[in-house]
């Protein structure tokens, strides 16, 4: 929550704290269990995090963070300190840990691994997750700050349909005749990529969709319809679980 606050000029702590709790509902709705899961919110759990972060901060100099992140003189000191705070949850318990994260967070944890032995802690192991492409195309990443580039877990069926049809980048051809002749490119088509990453668990069905689209047998509109149906089917269940999760939220929050 604090990283968004520091990095976005018009963001408030109230908003970022709300985002953190809303994100927590999605984790709970996906089936995480309170006995195995504790959600840490930096601004709420600073009593636990700060002593660890302070040890890291003492061993990270500005020239290092400047070189890694490209900080400038105008960068606020919150962003400069953030790596120290990001590292702290790795060492709340004195045991080896495994950290899954998006590749954009890699610089923070590379520094974490460098510093860990200096405070007599084991280096955390890392798993890099791919970035989910934005609706607008595979070169961008999905961002919660741009509603036209993102499907939210709270979107209605009508909104999902509108976003996919209007904004989902197509790997198809400019017109039907050319598409039937040349076929589409599933490697850059966002609808196909979402099916591949999230919504089509059957490899044979996914391969058939891939082949039909690439050959021109399947049109972009037909591919989008498959995705829309699958997203809305998932969200209908997820949104109910998400509402049910509100009564469980306190069980998941880490207590200092």
From TrEMBL:
Coiled coil: none annotated. Pfam families: tRNA-synt_1b (PF00579). It catalyses: tRNA(Trp) + L-tryptophan + ATP = L-tryptophyl-tRNA(Trp) + AMP + diphosphate + H(+). The keyword Nucleotide-binding applies. Its EC number is 6.1.1.2. GO terms for molecular function: ATP binding; tryptophan-tRNA ligase activity. Keywords: Aminoacyl-tRNA synthetase, ATP-binding, Ligase, Nucleotide-binding, Protein biosynthesis. Belongs to the class-I aminoacyl-tRNA synthetase family. This is tryptophan--tRNA ligase.
């Amino acid at each position: 929550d604090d990283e968004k606050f520091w990095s976005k000029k018009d963001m408030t702590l109230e908003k970022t704290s709300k985002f953190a709790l809303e994100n927590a509902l999605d984790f709970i709705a996906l089936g995480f269990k309170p006995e195995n899961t504790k959600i840490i919110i930096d601004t709420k759990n600073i009593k636990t995090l700060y002593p660890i972060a302070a040890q890291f901060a003492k061993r990270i100099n500005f020239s290092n963070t400047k070189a890694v992140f490209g900080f400038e003189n105008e960068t606020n000191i919150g962003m400069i300190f953030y790596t120290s705070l990001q590292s702290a949850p790795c060492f709340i318990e004195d045991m080896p840990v495994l950290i899954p994260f998006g590749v954009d967070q890699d610089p923070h944890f590379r520094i974490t691994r460098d510093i860990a032995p200096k405070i007599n802690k084991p280096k955390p192991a890392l798993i890099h997750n791919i970035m989910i492409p934005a609706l607008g195309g595979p070169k961008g990443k999905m961002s919660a700050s741009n509603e036209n580039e993102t499907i939210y877990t709270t979107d209605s069926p009508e909104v999902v349909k509108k976003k996919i049809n209007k904004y989902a980048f197509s790997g198809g051809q400019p017109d039907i005749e050319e598409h039937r002749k040349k076929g589409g490119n599933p490697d850059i088509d966002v609808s196909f990529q979402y099916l591949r990453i999230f919504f089509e668990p059957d490899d044979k069905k996914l391969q058939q969709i891939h082949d039909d689209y690439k050959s021109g047998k399947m049109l972009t509109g037909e591919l989008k319809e498959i995705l829309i149906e699958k997203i809305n089917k998932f969200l209908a269940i997820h949104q109910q679980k998400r509402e049910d999760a509100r009564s469980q939220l306190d069980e998941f929050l880490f207590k200092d």
